[in-house]
Specification:
By secondary structure, this protein is α/β, with parallel strands linked by helices. Helix content is 42%, strand content 16%. The chain folds into two domains: 26-125, Rossmann fold (3-Layer(aba) Sandwich), CATH 3.40.50; 128-234, 3-Layer(aba) Sandwich (Rossmann fold), CATH 3.40.50. The strands form two sheets. The protein has a four-stranded parallel beta sheet with strand order 2-1-3-4, sandwiched between helices. A four-stranded parallel beta sheet has the order 6-5-7-8, with helices on both faces. α2 (39-47) crosses α12 and α10 packs parallel to α11 (217-224).
Length: 258
């Protein structure tokens, strides 16, 4: 091919001073379930008001039918998923995105599995974040709303009871799997949350990352006059704090404003 003046010309180097990238405030790694279509949208809604907060996700498999055994089986997949999340860049915190799975496996084992691939990074999960949030709000006597079948509900109740909380009221949508949970309408969550939250409790905890709660949290709080903590809301709140970001977020309940 003949040499031309064009091919001999060198590329001009343009000036560029690196900034801190798209996650200057908080770089959050997320291990989501393969069939959860809600968690990423919810987390990004909660974090939209925080400039420089970003979520980077990987996924792990979960059996379609929800069971304590299936939830525990996820533990083996955590290290590989954690290792795939921006391995050559900064992460401030790693979040495991399954509330019932965190309770079935145990938060300590979840964190240990993450750190096998990503040592030195703070790790959180929805139940640890939610119970931390309830403690911050001074609530021990709670109402608990879940979408799970009864076998998983028993795991959840035993865990929450074991952490020193009193479940004074409890109810469930009793859905068989994550795709069904994702189709529980926000208005159904609102009605159930108000019905439970108006009873003699100090706060309402809505468990599950596959429930679409972001649009109703503030409304439920206004209706019941008490704090509402949800899995994804608490996870976003805890991730920001663990990343060293103290930005208050309006519109998603008292916890995000703390």
């Amino acid at each position: 091919m003949p040499t031309t003046v064009e091919t001999l010309r060198s590329w001009e180097t343009m000036p560029s001073t690196p900034d801190e990238g798209p996650a200057a405030a908080a770089a959050i790694g997320l291990i989501a379930l393969g069939n959860d279509v809600v968690i990423e949208q919810e987390l990004r809604a909660f974090l939209a008001g925080v400039e420089g907060a970003a979520v980077f996700a990987s996924r792990i498999p979960l059996m379609l039918s929800l069971s304590p055994e299936g939830l525990r089986d996820m533990e083996a997949h955590i290290p590989r998923a954690a290792g795939l999340i921006v391995p050559n860049d900064r992460l401030d915190v790693m979040a495991f995105g399954c509330t019932s799975g965190s309770m079935a496996i145990g938060p300590e084992r979840v964190a240990a599995a993450v750190r096998r691939a990503r040592p030195g990074i703070p790790v959180t999960d929805p139940v640890s974040a939610a119970l931390k949030g309830l403690n911050r709000l001074g609530a021990r006597r709670i109402a608990l709303l879940t979408p799970y079948p009864d076998a998983v509900n028993r795991v959840v109740a035993d865990y929450v009871d074991g952490q020193g909380f009193e479940i004074a009221e409890r109810a469930s949508f009793k859905q068989p799997n994550d795709p069904a949970i994702a189709r529980v309408p926000p208005e159904a969550i609102y009605r159930a949350g108000v019905a439970l939250g108006r009873r003699p409790v100090e706060a309402l905890f809505i468990s599950c990352t596959a429930l679409r709660c972001s649009s109703v949290i503030e409304r439920v709080e206004q209706a019941i006059g008490k704090p509402v903590v949800t899995s994804n809301q608490a996870l976003a709140w805890d991730c920001l704090r663990l990343a060293g970001c103290e930005t208050a977020v309006e519109g998603y309940g008292r916890l995000m404003r703390e």
